[in-house]
Amino acid sequence: MPGPPGYNYNSYKRAVHNWGQENGRNIVYETTPSGPASHQVWSCMIYVDGIPGFTGLASAYSKSGAEEAAATQFWAHRDTYA
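and the corresponding structure tokens:
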């Protein structure tokens, strides 16, 4: 999955990480599985400086997919945290 248009990042997760570094913010991904092992759904919430974001919540069938989906949502609203 490509990163945000106009940026030289290969994923939204990388873009969010770099945004946190540039702005002195601590970014944490809390990713948890649910359901049977054969059909797990992963949910991911992004925390900024220990506070859960009102954006950056997503689910997917893989851990990395949930993290990338949450980062994609967060990226669109990152200026809220600036």
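(Above: one complete record from the training split.) The first strand starts at residue 27 and ends at 34.
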